Description:
It contains seven helices and no strands. The protein is globular. The model has no long low-confidence stretch (mean pLDDT 88). It starts with 9 loop residues before the first helix and ends in a 5-residue tail after the last helix. By secondary structure, the chain is mainly alpha-helical.
Amino acid sequence: xxxxxxxxxxxxxxxxxxxxxxxxxxxxxxxxxxxxxxxxxxxxxxxxxxxxxxxxxxxxxxxxxxxxxxxxxxxxxxxxxxxxxxxxxxxxxxxxxxxxxxxxxxxxxxxxxxxxxxxxxxxxxxxxxxxxxxxx
Length: 136
């Protein structure tokens, strides 16, 4: 057996998760919902956090999905402040819009985005708590 001397971190494993596939199946099939709201939400939070997305920005997009729907949110020129985060989120929103067949699916996608926003906030809070006080 060959051992990798530099094993991947949990963040690296989660960042490699196929979030679009989880959205495709998790919105429309109940059996995949746990994976969507578990690993999928965590992977999305890791990805967007790496792009510097703020939790409030993702939560705002969730509000837009509730009011205007997934297709409308996917069509926004800049759903998040950074270009990279916007492009990533837009891909997820477009995928979700293609499979969301009911208003419940749209509401579920908005809840998922709220979950992602909360997880980004938790990650940022945890980093701030472990960083300690800055220079005096």
